[in-house]
Amino acid sequence: MEIYHGDILYSENREKLNVYENSYIAVENGLVEGIYAQIPEKFSGVEVTDYGRALIIPAFSDLHVHAAQFIQRGIGMDLLLSDWLNIYTFPQESHFADPSYAEPIYEAYVNDMIRHGTFHACIFTTIHRHATNILFKKLEEKGLRALVGKVNMDFQSPDYLCETTEESLRETEIFLDEHSGGERVKPILTPRFVPTCSRELLWGLGKLGKKYQVGVQTHVVESRWEAAESLRLFPDCRSDSEIYEKAGLLGNGPSVFAHVIFPTEDDLRVMKEYHCTAVHCPDATNNVIAGIMAVDRLHREGLHLALGSDIGAGQQNGIYRQCAAAIKLSKLKEFYEPELGKTINIADSFYMATKAGGEVFGNVGTFEPGYVFDALVIDNLEDEGHPMTPAQRLERFCYAGDDRNIIARYLNGSFVRNA
Amino acid sequence: MEIYHGDILYSENREKLNVYENSYIAVENGLVEGIYAQIPEKFSGVEVTDYGRALIIPAFSDLHVHAAQFIQRGIGMDLLLSDWLNIYTFPQESHFADPSYAEPIYEAYVNDMIRHGTFHACIFTTIHRHATNILFKKLEEKGLRALVGKVNMDFQSPDYLCETTEESLRETEIFLDEHSGGERVKPILTPRFVPTCSRELLWGLGKLGKKYQVGVQTHVVESRWEAAESLRLFPDCRSDSEIYEKAGLLGNGPSVFAHVIFPTEDDLRVMKEYHCTAVHCPDATNNVIAGIMAVDRLHREGLHLALGSDIGAGQQNGIYRQCAAAIKLSKLKEFYEPELGKTINIADSFYMATKAGGEVFGNVGTFEPGYVFDALVIDNLEDEGHPMTPAQRLERFCYAGDDRNIIARYLNGSFVRNA
Hints:
2 copies of one chain form a homodimer.
Chain A: E1 2-11, E2 17-28, E3 31-36, E4 48-58, E5 60-66, H1 81-94, H2 99-115, E6 118-124, H3 129-142, E7 145-149, E8 151-152, H4 165-178, E9 185-187, E10 190-191, H5 199-212, E11 216-220, H6 224-233, H7 240-246, E12 255-259, H8 265-273, E13 277-280, H9 282-289, H10 295-300, E14 304-307, H11 319-336, H12 346-358, E15 375-378, H13 390-400, E16 406-411, E17 414-415
Parallel strand pairs in A: 1-4, 5-6, 6-7, 7-9, 8-10, 11-12, 12-13, 13-14
Antiparallel strand pairs in A: 1-2, 2-3, 4-15, 15-16, 16-17
Helix pairs in contact in A: 2-3, 4-5, 7-8, 11-12, 11-13
């Protein structure tokens, strides 16, 4: 049993932030036991770690990130998607055929995740199974929670980054076999997106999904081009999402759809039916995609939304910064497309970044009793003589803070050293 | 004479970045003498400071910032302009009636400017002359270049933050008298914006501008509401800009117009005629204003554009981050209003952030011979084993770097200690 004192803040829903100023959070066997204004008698004698006026918040969940693109963060950002893919991303990913090339990049990526307080992530790697296993192992060793997918591409892809259908399915099945016992880190099927996957591949992955009871992550209606190309390739389907549905890829585990900028009514139907997570990656869609997710409208439709860094289309790991970026983009969405919804606030975006995103990984992302104490201690946000409320400090952290404000990290209830 | 070695990068125009890899920049009496691939014989014996593969770039210019709002950075960002002004900004600014309240905030602001490499700034304070003088002195002592304006507000302003017309003009004239000999830091007239200034005040400031030969900074067509309100109040004028022209405020010194999001043809005419600087503040307009400057179109019209942090509507001091934000917003501008221009690139935005902005302060902002060596040394952007070009490193710094990447600062040719 451990007890931590500070200003405790977490999300239970997207309506409001739960704030417990000057309070105590009790942690038993790595799980939240409860939050108290005063230490209950039953815990007298338990040592208290006092963080004073610092915020104690749940660690972040990154629901869409390309770990192999960590090496290209913040480069080529003035290009549009197709150039950015062909000039930077595809050549870069092809190097991951060599595990010794991959190793230091994945090491740097995982350390950077922890530094920025991201303890749970849905991760795309590349088509290469051996390199993917290196990342898998690093995440396991650090104690992080993740869904990791070897990428599938067998169609309309550059020669140097393309598998045969057979090879793609075989390598994926080996990958699933290798990690069938994964506890905190688990495999997830990862067809890159419809335009780089043949029908045979998608339907084959659907069979694997059923056989191994494993979910899927991919990019869905991320650009007008991509949405149109999907329908051109699959004229028997009414939406990008329906292709995955018909392939049998949905309902076997979490379904995580990145971007969802141009959904049709049929996309919405599928996402509701299978409780898909639609991942808003504000920096990334702003940087290389152009277009803004209709967060407010999708929330009102009842969809499950979370946030993603989408490195390397997004430039950095901090999901707190995506909380700010999501609010910013929602203002422009309201300005340009008021029929698609209103400006969101910090309660909305922090909910997406923590509890909503965390749901995909199990009992993480909030401080309700029984949830894992994956937590960050955030400090040094106030100017001397100018006290701020906990919610204001959270907002300033998201907009203007950085990893230096994270003064302590707890993962599975344990203090993280050397972050 | 001093010589610095590194990868030297600066803007001469907005078409391209001038890059001198592995080169030497010679500085004589604080001014750039020249850049050399090898040390010329005439300089043999001069000590060389070797920054290896680090970038050496000009320091940044912030053409629009509210120093008094530094204390509220990153708070209330989900509000829109009128609420943000009435709930946070106006009450906050009213405290600056007390110089002892102002002093630590201005001290923190100036230190933060330097930390982020902003060495030249056009600064709004508040209506309070005494507090403004505190900031003025701090900027002078540090050796920074700035145009500083005591704000004028005599109309449609809250009781607690409103002057009489007479008082506003009298205090402004005293302020101009006090600083008439200013060398690096100079006064500038600062009517907040048309909706808070009476006709008598604006025309009175115009007379002061002529008498003291001093320029003006203000907010111009920053929102649809503001633009319409200006025309309602001044039905004899065709544009926000023409009001300032008719008041006699233009042509007496630099004219610095913040935001310029909804310019009419007449605004463009005035801005061209008086070589006004239109200041793009991407984070700020995204945060509380909503609307995007048509950077590409205004550049093609021949306007002079620069960048601003617009703290506290903007959340932080780093103008490098505004270089990235300007590119991001230009992508959305092209997406939503393609007729108003195309995506800009890092050469465009770095030019605005350095040479174009610097022009307002004299011979700063570039490394052409005769310019002041106000410089930043930027390092630790490459991942081991993955060398990047200087332009790529600049881009990564703007998108994903922070003040920790600024490993040395030179102001007026001298190394800055304790930044």
